[in-house]
Amino acid sequence: MLNTWGFCCQNLKGILDCKPPRPCSCLDRSDLVLVVGRMSSKWSGTALSPRSYRLASDTDMPKVAGIVNEKLLSDYLNHIFPSTSKPQQPAAAFRKPLTFLDLGDHLDTLLAEGEPAEESKDVDGRLGPPTVVLDHTSGFEGLLLVDDDLLGVIGHSNFSSIRATTCVFKGKWSYEVLISSQGLMQIGWCTLNCRFNQEEGVGDTADSYAYDGNRVRKWNITTTNYGKSWAAGDIVTCLIDLDEGTISFCLNGQSLGTAFNSIKIGPGLAYFPAISLSFKESVAFNFGSRPLRYPVEGYQPLQDPPSADLLKAQRLLGYIKNIFTTKIDTQEGKLVEKDSAAWELHGEPTVLVTLAHIFNHFAPLMCKVYLVEGVLMRFLLSILEGGGSVDEHPLIQQLLDLMWLLMEDYEVNECLKQLMMSLLRAYRFSPIIPDLGFQIHYLRLTTAILRHEKSRKYLLSNVLFDVLRSAVFFYIKTPLQVKEAGLEELIPTTWWPCHFDKEGRDEREAREESPEERLRRRAYERGCQRLKKRIEVVEELQVQILKLLLNNKDKGTDEASRYIFLNKFRKFLQENASNRGNPTVLCPPEYMVCFLHRLIAAVRFYWEESKRKSSGVLGSEEAYVPPQLFYNGKVDYFDLQRLGGLLSHLKKTLKDDLASKANIIIDPSEIQAMSMDDLDEDEENGTVQRPAGATAMGGALARPSWLSSPTLGRANRFLSTAAVSLMSPRRPLGTPERMKVRTLSVEQRTEEDIEGSHGNDGLLQGRPPEESDQPIAEKSLLEIMDGIVMMYNLSVHQQLGKMVVVSDDVHEYAVALKDTEEKIARCPKQREDILEELVKSQKVFIEKLNHLSRRLAWINATIYSKDKMMDIYWLLRVCIRSIEHMDRTGSLFAFTPEFYLNVAMNSYSALKNYFSPSNSMDELPGYEETLTQLAALLAKHFADPRIVGTDIKDSLMQALASYVCYHQSLRAVERIPEEQRVAMMKNLLAPYEQRPWAQTNWILVRLWRGCGFGYRYTRLPHLLKIKPEDANLPSLQKPCPSILLQKHMADLLSRDKEMAASFLNSVLNQLNWAFSEFIGMIQEIQQAAERPERNFVDTRQLKVCATCFDLSVSLLRVLEMTVTLVPEIFLDWTRPSAELLLRRLAQLLNQVLNRVTAERNLFDRVVNLRLPGLESVDHYPILVAVTGILVRILVDCEMQGVARAAAVLLSDPCFQLHSIQHLLGESELLSSTVCHSLSLSLPDTDYISPEEQQKVERMLSFLTNESKEAAASAAPTSEEDLCPICYAHPISAVFKPCSHKSCKACINQHLMNNKECFFCKATITGVDDYSKPPAS
């Protein structure tokens, strides 16, 4: 653009040297600096100092460089620089001509007019340094993090206090405090004599006074109600009138009234600004270093504003505005007024030299934050006030061009830095109004500044990520106070949904809406739509900012913006991935959520743009991250866990596969440097015994706190009174701790390293043979997409789950309101007292629901809208495709970062649980196909040997367990290829020993639920009335059994006899353990309950006890499932382990029945205690599970099998017929109380069908007859003939070669784990049947 200005550098040099101009086609920026006489070093070859330039004669100017004639120039300069001290200007004919020779002195004179006299440092009524900051040397108590500007502070202990460096003793003074977090704080004034500690702070001593907006009180030893509640982003103005002896406060410019009267004043008393704040609470002070947001008439800030500089800056800006509104018409020889918005610099030397004189004074002033915020930012905002798109306001671009041209680089850099800091502060903490006008205003200016290429690249390289927390620009904060956000006007009618389950469908049968409800709902939806449209305006501006930062077409002489952003973005991810234990360094999750959505929109925009330009490129709907990024070392994953373990380990073990499949050779020295021994040593020496707060002491907290002041600066210092009065910033205490310092390789990467060039694939180096060579997209977009996946894993999913609490609150209050209304309807009219209380409760619930429904509308628009749901769905599909592509690489799959699997599982969970019911998953495009792909992923990888991490394997198992719990996702599992289904079932049927088996067992139970005996309940019958909210628990969803997967299980167990035996033995072993543990624990609980001192039972013990009970029930259900699907495993005694399995099953069933059904037993007593935490422990679930197994083997099987089962059951020493009779309440031995509780368990429940009850009656009748016959025919067995191991069964087996004897059950169970004889320890080589020879 500089080359189009119509004149050249040599021409300008001719003005200076009185030489004829030489033709030139360029305009060099350094020569223009010569023109204005500033920073002569910028033009090599000259030695002109400031103010050394001279024009030979005014008559030469038109000939030299197009300078206008003397009269027109004089008129122009007098118009641009009007005098302020002379009210009546002389006529142009009598006015002394003004030329560039005189302009410097003339400008100096104008700027000196009205300049206030230099004030003394000591102001009457104030003591202390003129620059007021927080006293970080001695004026604090506790642990504090203080920004390097000494204006922002974070509490780092229980109740920390700090005061300012300046005090006041006379006059009227004010200062402002920006509330960064809305927690417990006391803000006000104190004297030097006040002594604070970790319990008492400002307002808790005699000479200190404070306002607490968290508890809405004022403090001065005692406390009373005062003021209003504050929220993050509010500004508290603290006022003290030492003439009248009063202290008052304002909130966001509104007076809260006088808080304290007749405060102590007089000799020796001076008041300091002071604050006390609790842990992690943060504020920022403004004593006058920046313009006060809400100045109060009659009160002056503690720090004097730079009045002289402010006056100069305003005048100089006025001169610049005059230039923008004035045009020189050289043909007519006159000045023409014009609109400043249309002003452009076309290289007019007169204008340019005039501007150079102005910037000679203006540039140094623009390095001061007060002037940048109070003058420049206000002027730039005024340019955009007219509305329209940012493109329609080129004046800002012109002004930035002038700044880069006429100011030194360091001046422009400092000015832009301060300008962006002011914009960020203003955007973050501006109050929310219905049209979001403040936020839109500041974002528009930010967009306009970033549209300027040179400014954008400087800010990207040095400010946005290095100095500022730029993610704040992409955040839309949620209003905590609905009234102040104007939501009552925007959404006048409220409505709330009721009775929705976690899948977003109605729990109960749909009922017709009343006309009134329908009108309310539609009015509420219209209000939500109005709100959504206003929020979309802000979101679109945020996306525009990211589009500017992701521009890769602005290469010019230096790197394109996108590649600068990419390197900074990767470093941002590293900070958040490597500092999980230090929340002050982490980007807050609520910021991450908004940043992620805007980044997805910008990436997909450029992705589609790339597709339009190149026909072979995939669309963003088919996007995935190629496998190469995970193992070629081009992208740094900051030592995050891979599926196969540590990266150093994978490089050692898979180096041959990398060489053969991807042509990547690992340097042996690199392997040695990254060895696990080195990492372990670093861990032991660098991280052990590092206290949580120590990260701030030794310089490890060089990065700043997200909770700190609105400067959002990236440096701070740590103050502590725990050991010393001050800990110097970045100075370690004692011996420095060893820390593993890692420099990101991405800092030095260039566009060629990322995108590649001739023969270089850039990020995609090392393509495996399984991967297509079809271009996907620009490689830089692939890395940004990879970073988006990492962002979701770091904190976005956590925040999505957190914000859904508001929806849950709406549901709870709606249920409470409905219950209250029903009570009002039932309340007798004569009980007016009860009715009055119920009406009060109704009003409270309605008021709370009105507030929450409006807040929910805001959250749904900003977090859970349809567009946001599509973003998360897109992310889910990206992860699934990326994992599928990586899976095809075979062993290289181990290089995949764990977070890809985590994001795939968590994003699906978010879609299912967080975005419903406002948005239905069924409406997502290709949803069923995606469900099937995710089902195949879970089914294949939950037992993948390439995955070694315990946590990720457990997460996969839990995800699969949740997946089969819902009808829609279970059908997706049934749609995956048969080979994968069979492999999944085979992995589920692996023996339970030496692996986490509980989740596997829950999966099998859920596949069976709905088919078992009395197993059709959605809630446990005894909890039906006690805890109705349990309906939403995944384990208590409506039964959805899978007949197809049951068939696969039956086929596997039927064909593979060895697998069936090992699986069932492991199930029986775990059942024996779980039920034994349960009985032992309820014995301890009963003993504790019977003690006279009434000790409380440990809640953890109660939880473990309930878990053991639930495990026992689930294991019994798996046994029921197996007996039903494959009864021959127990009843076909041609199978080697059938008899042993049947005997073990009978033994365990008898033990369970006896423990649960015995008269006045331990189980009954603990159940009747109704202890919190043991709600699931009851007779019904365990008795129906046992009954289902007995009915199957004693009623539903063939006669031969039934006979075997009955014989084994009756021969067990633990068998008691009255335990079976108990199931129908027919035992005469039971007391009426116990009989009533147990008889309700089976026949009187809705979940037992008449057919099932008849089967129980038949089973009882059959067992009664069989037991009588067995008792009549059984011959007494002598003690010598009984098994010497169990003394329950006759001897039936003899061992080889030692000839010792026992029953078959004992020896078969023994040989499962041991091959030595019980008695002589000889190795058993065989077992033969034994029958006692007849007596001689």
TrEMBL record:
UniProt signal peptide: none
Molecular function terms, GO-annotated: ubiquitin protein ligase activity; zinc ion binding
Catalytic activity: S-ubiquitinyl-[E2 ubiquitin-conjugating enzyme]-L-cysteine + [acceptor protein]-L-lysine = [E2 ubiquitin-conjugating enzyme]-L-cysteine + N(6)-ubiquitinyl-[acceptor protein]-L-lysine
Ranges of residues in domain RING-type: 1283-1321
Disordered, as annotated region: 743-774
Enzyme's top EC category: transferase
Self-association and partners: Component of the KPC complex composed of RNF123/KPC1 and UBAC1/KPC2. Interacts with UBAC1 and CDKN1B via its N-terminal domain. Interacts with RIGI (via N-terminus) and IFIH1 (via N-terminus).
UniProt name for this protein: E3 ubiquitin-protein ligase RNF123
Native source organism of the sequence: Acipenser oxyrinchus oxyrinchus
Gene: RNF123
